[in-house]
C-alpha cells in the first residue's frame, strides 16, 4: 500500500508530543547526566488493528554549554 493510499484509507496516525514536551526537555537537560527527547511518531494501522511504528522523530535542543 502506498503512502497516499494509507492516508486516503485513514490508516496513518500521528502521536505528537513534540510541542508538549519541549519545555520539559530543556529543564531536564539542565540536570547533570540526564537527557530527554521530545517525540513525534507516525503509525500504520495493520489489518489486525494493531499500530506499527513507521517513523520516529526525536528532538533534543542543542546546548552550546554542554557536550552532545
From TrEMBL:
Keyword presence, ATP-binding: no
Lipoxygenase domain location: 1-68
InterPro entries found in the cross-reference section: LipOase, LipOase_C, LipOase_C_sf
Keyword Oxidoreductase recorded: yes
One family name in Pfam for this protein: Lipoxygenase
Gene3D superfamilies given in the database record: 3.10.450.60
Record's keyword terms, sorted: Dioxygenase, Metal-binding, Oxidoreductase
Signal peptide start-end: none
Name of the protein: Lipoxygenase domain-containing protein
Species of the source: Brassica napus (Rape)
Amino acid at each position: 500500500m502506498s503512502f497516499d493510499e494509507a492516508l486516503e484509507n485513514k490508516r496513518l496516525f500521528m502521536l505528537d508530543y513534540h510541542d508538549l514536551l519541549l519545555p520539559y526537555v530543556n529543564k531536564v537537560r539542565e540536570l547533570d547526566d540526564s537527557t530527554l527527547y521530545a517525540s513525534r511518531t507516525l503509525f500504520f494501522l495493520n489489518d489486525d488493528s494493531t499500530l506499527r511504528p513507521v517513523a520516529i522523530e526525536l528532538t533534543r535542543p542543542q546546548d552550546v554549554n554542554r557536550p552532545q
